[in-house]
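> example.struct
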């Protein structure tokens, strides 16, 4: 009779060789859904496009979300946008585990191949990316209380940050024998565990035929990361200022209405300001957001989106354009085109005098 350990090993032996193809299918399906939504194809059901756009609705876009009736009661199920931090927490945990496993896979000797070292660098850069984004989500970004995202977007985001680091692994790792050897080495199976650091150091410093490619990829990665961080600093500052103004507008409006009705229109409480009926004052959407201006936003409509695309382009360059990394970068590009177009539509609708029509382009984040 097969033991539990043997059963798990048999499943892993059957699933792991198929994992690269499954990961590629994940990106192809996700990209196809966005592409079908972006293209003006009459054969694509409007309900499908509405569902995809709804899944992409978050923050300010949640207020302009499509009425995806095909989803039934799920069309309005949402979670706070602050839950973005969960994505980066999951991504950092998964990447950390994969890095630890991969180090033992690629350092049994000192002549680590180019493929092994490129994938190791890509995983390390992705780790830095998700750790930075986790820190930004917690300590930099400002999410209004009304900022929401759809449950589908939340669930997809969790899966994304599991699939993304797995995509950066080369196919030779998806083998039970390779992983078992790495496990044995991690436990010191007949080898000097202390020598792993020395072998890793020697493999990383060995001559690399693609050093100029890696140097270019690192330069692009650093530039894009700084651009995104600076953009998020600006967005956070503008969001805090807009939230303060929105609260002031709501209080003044409630006071004026109360004066006309002969009642107290705004009552401060420990939980916030409420109206005469005890209901929390809700700021108008038009007061909660403003058209981003200043700094890089004077040059690029959505520089944080552009930076994200460049970061994944850098990861694809590090891996010499592996199929998985290119498919992943392609999905990031299409997804952010959809998000940027929706963002511009939001601003043009609510601030027609402050958002010039010249910014409405096919690729709106590189104006």
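> example.seq
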């Amino acid at each position: 009779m097969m033991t539990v350990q043997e059963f798990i090993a048999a499943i892993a032996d059957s699933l792991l060789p198929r994992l690269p193809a499954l990961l590629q299918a994940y990106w192809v399906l996700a990209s196809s859904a966005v592409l079908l939504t972006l293209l003006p194809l009459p054969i694509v059901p409007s309900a499908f496009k509405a569902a995809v756009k709804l899944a992409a609705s978050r923050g300010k876009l949640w207020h302009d979300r499509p009425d995806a009736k095909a989803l039934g009661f799920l069309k309005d199920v949402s979670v706070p946008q602050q839950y973005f931090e969960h994505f980066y927490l999951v991504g950092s945990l998964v990447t950390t585990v994969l890095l630890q496993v991969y180090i033992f896979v690629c350092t049994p000797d000192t002549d680590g191949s180019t493929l092994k070292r490129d994938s190791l660098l890509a995983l390390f850069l992705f780790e830095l990316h998700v750790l930075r984004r986790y820190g930004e989500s917690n300590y930099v970004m400002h999410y209004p209380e009304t900022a929401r995202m759809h449950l589908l977007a939340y669930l997809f985001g969790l899966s994304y940050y599991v699939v993304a680091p797995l995509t950066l692994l080369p196919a030779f790792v998806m083998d039970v024998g390779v992983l078992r050897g790495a496990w044995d080495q991690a436990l010191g199976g007949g080898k000097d565990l202390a020598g792993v650091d020395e072998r890793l150091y020697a493999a990383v410093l060995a001559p690399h035929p693609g050093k100029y490619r890696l140097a270019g990829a690192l330069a692009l990665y650093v530039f894009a990361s700084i651009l995104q961080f600076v953009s998020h600093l600006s967005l956070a500052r503008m969001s805090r200022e807009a939230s303060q103004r929105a609260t002031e507008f709501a209080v003044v409006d409630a006071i004026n209405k109360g004066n006309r009705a002969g009642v107290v229109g705004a009552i401060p409480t420990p939980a916030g300001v409420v109206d005469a009926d005890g209901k929390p004052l809700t700021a108008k959407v038009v007061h909660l957001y403003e058209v981003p201006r200043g700094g890089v936003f004077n040059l690029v409509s959505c520089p944080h989106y552009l930076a994200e695309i460049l970061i994944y382009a850098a990861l694809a360059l590090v891996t010499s354009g592996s199929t998985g990394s290119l498919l992943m970068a392609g999905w990031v590009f299409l997804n952010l085109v959809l998000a940027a177009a929706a963002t511009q539509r939001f601003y043009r609708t609510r601030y027609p005098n402050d958002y010039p029509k010249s910014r409405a382009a096919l690729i709106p984040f590189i104006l």
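> remarks
Residues 4-366 form one domain.
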